[in-house]
Amino acid sequence: MGNPGLQALNIASGLTNLGAQIGARGLAGIASRVTGHGDVKMLEGAVGAYGFTTSIMTGLRMASRAFVTGKSAPAFRGSKFDGWQETSHLSSKDWGLEKNVLGIGFETMNLATKMSNRGLLSGDEFIKVLSYETEVSMLAYRTAIAEQASSKFDFNLFKTRMGEIRKDPRSVLVDGKSIHSIGLEQGKLNTLQADLGAFGKMMQAAQTDVPIASPIVKFMIPFVKVLSNAPKLVVRHSLLSAGNRFGKNSVYGPRAGNRTAKDISPSQQMEEVGRMTLGSMIMYMGGTLYANGLMTDAGEPDYGIRRQGTETGAEPPLTLYHVSDEGQRFGVDLSRLQPWGNLLGLGASAWNLSTTNDDAT
C-alpha cells in the first residue's frame, strides 16, 4: 500500500462503501414505507447525502491531523495495520546495527512503512468522519420526525431538534444504542475495520506479538480486517443475506425462529433489506455490462488458466470498459475495489454461465 495509486484506491473503496450506505438507506426507506414495517424514513438517504457534503472539510482536517501525528482521534481508534508502528523487530537498535549500513537499511524500511501506514490511517480517518456524520444525520432525521408523529408537524421545531441531536448524538438512543456509537460502527464498517472474530484476532496477534516471525506474517497476510470484512459486506449486499436466519444482521424476526430476534428491530431489518436490494441491483448492472461487452467476468478460478490467458492477450478479469466516441476502449481494473468489484463480477459471471451451453457448465 505504499504507492499513491493504492493509497487512492483505499480512499475510493471507502467512498464507494459510503455511497452504498446512503443508497441502501434510501431503498430501505422505500421498503419501510411500502410494507409499513419499521421506521426508516423515505428521505433518510437524501439527508445522509447532506451530512456527507457538510462534513468534507471536517474530514480533511481530521485526516491531515492523523497523517502528521500518526494517531487517530480517540473515537475513531483503529487501523488496517493495527500495531505496525509498535512492532520493532526489524529496527537497527534491536539488532545492534545502529552504525551499520544494514541498520540504515532497516531504518529506511521502517520509515517507508511508517509513511505507508500513516497514509492508510489518514485515508481511513477521512472515511470514518464522513461515515459517522452521514449516519448521525440520517438517524437524527429519523428521530426528529418520529418525535412529531403524534402531533401536527412543526418545521421549526423539527429543524431545531435535528440540530440538537447532531450536536449531541450520545444522548439519543436508536434501537437501544446511542446514535454516536452507531455512527462509529458505520465508520469501521465502511473502512473494513469492523470487529474481528476469534480466528481473525488470532491472526492479528501473530502479526504483532511473535518475535522475528511477526514481520513475515504481516508481509504475507497484511490486511486481516479487510480479508474478514470484505466478504461479509458482499454477503450483506446480496441475496445470500437471505440465508442468514440466526445471525447478528439477519433480516428475519421472531416468527422465523431467530434466536437473536430481541436484538433486531423492524427498522434494522429494513436496513438489511435495503442493503440486499442495492447489492442485487449492482449485480444486475454487472450482468448487463457484461452482456453489452463493457465488462469482463471474474475469470477462470484456476490460476494457471488465468495466467495462460494473460500471456495470450486475453482480456483481464473484472475489467470495466469505456468506449469513446472514436471507438477506442479504455479499461479499469475493478478487482481491488472491494466489495463492489466482486458484486459486479458475480453478476457478470452469472450472465456468462446462463448463456454458456457446454458440458463443463
Please describe what this structure looks like:
The strands form two sheets. A two-stranded antiparallel ribbon has the order 1-2. A two-stranded antiparallel sheet has the order 3-4. About 2% of the residues have low confidence. The radius of gyration is 23 Å and the shape is globular. Helix 1 runs parallel beside helix 4 and helix 1 packs across helix 10. The relative contact order is 0.11. The protein has 361 residues and is mainly alpha-helical. The two termini are 38 Å apart. 58% of the residues lie in helices and 4% in strands.
The N- and C-terminal alpha carbons lie at a distance of 38 Å
* Mean pLDDT across every amino acid position: 82
Please write the string of helix (H) and strand (E) elements: HHHHHEEHHHHHHEEH
Question: Which structural class fits the helix and strand makeup?
Answer: mainly alpha
Spatial order of the strands in the main sheet? 1-2
How many helical elements? 12
